[in-house]
Design a protein that fits this description.
Blueprint: E1 2-8, E2 12-18, E3 24-27, E4 34-37, E5 48-54, E6 57-62, E7 65-70, E8 76-79, E9 90-95, E10 102-106, E11 110-115, E12 118-122, E13 134-140, E14 143-148, E15 151-156, E16 162-165, E17 176-183, E18 186-192, E19 195-200, E20 205-209, E21 231-237, E22 240-245, E23 248-252, E24 257-260, E25 272-277, E26 283-287, E27 290-296, E28 301-307, E29 314-320, E30 323-330, E31 339-345, E32 348-353, E33 356-360, E34 370-373, E35 383-386
Parallel strand pairs: 2-35
Antiparallel strand pairs: 1-2, 3-34, 4-33, 5-6, 6-7, 7-8, 9-10, 10-11, 11-12, 13-14, 14-15, 15-16, 17-18, 18-19, 19-20, 21-22, 22-23, 23-24, 25-26, 26-27, 27-28, 28-29, 29-30, 30-35, 31-32, 32-33
Length: 388
Amino acid sequence: MTCWRMIGAWAGLLTLCVGASGGAVELPFVYTDWQHFTTRDGLPNDHIFAVEVEGTKIWVGTEDGLACIDKTTGRIESWKEADGLPWRVVSALDANPKTGELWLGLFGGGLARFSGRRFDHWHQLNSGLVNDVVYGVAVEHDNIWAATTAGASRYNTVTGEWSIYTEKNAPMEEIWNYGVCYDNGKVYLGIWGSGVLEFDIATEKWKDYIDPDGEMEIDLYRDDGIVHVITTGVSYVDDILWVSSYFGMCRYDGRHWRGYYQHETGLPSDFGNAVKGRSADEAWYATDKGIGVVADFATDTWVTYTMDPNTHEGIAVVSRNNKVLETVRSPHGIPHNYALWVEFDGDDVWVGTSKGLARGKGAGYYAGLKERPVGTKPQNAEEHVVRK
């Protein structure tokens, strides 16, 4: 191992360690240019539950209000209960691409629609919403799905009809619905204690995905199915289902499952709050100890994003098959290691945490792996360590 220490005008001290053999390594893109948003910038609260990208607008659901960041002007507008927001805690967001309406899941306040700068409100007492604690919301054609603590509700915005799904008419062993997503004719529900449920829109038939070995404490047989029945997030993209849980994460391609755990991957923790798939090969897991990114599925290459609690610098660790290839330090990273949400915005990425919102700028982003000379410094990186 050979080490060089040099002074760079761009960032103070740079420590670089590379293998003596030199050469190049196939590595994923690493986000090092991060921008933070907090109450000091105009957000109503720093505890970020949800982020939704709608063109040039970035909608942000917080513990005390809704915010909208206009990327063209940099202006941040917010709404609290005094401004007409029906409930202070906005726990979920989804925009209707056809109408431009924004749908809000309210943690204890039901479901809301924001359109024409007006809020409309549905709750247990005035609608068919099964419960007012809404963890997830998803737009499916003219229907709105709400994942609640007492089942799922589906609202047809054209006919006004409500459908309720609980243990009485769906294969839910538990009815605590944590997450919901829609894509390619199917709705997926992540349920606490019932794994993942798949609802086929055309046939209105259910299919359940639960841990086949029936063991709650460990995954008895490797890659035999979903890693755990206490699921917290679902994301379906490019015919791949990505799942987060409180005891590990997984990927399903329709035939084969792949389980992910902290001790053998780049996951910073097995406790997953949410997941967002970018493609069949890339997914971002928001955990209680940082962000774990499957950057390239085929090679089991990961990028782990955390914040140094002592310096507040960003740390990105690239690993493959649990072997560290590269460590990058940057002036900023994610605002806090308790991550709750991830949203993609073209090549950029937005990360919601318990202490603020971050935008990772993806200038030069590339999917998968790319060969670059050993020692190449990512943009704005403070410290770059490569191991071969």
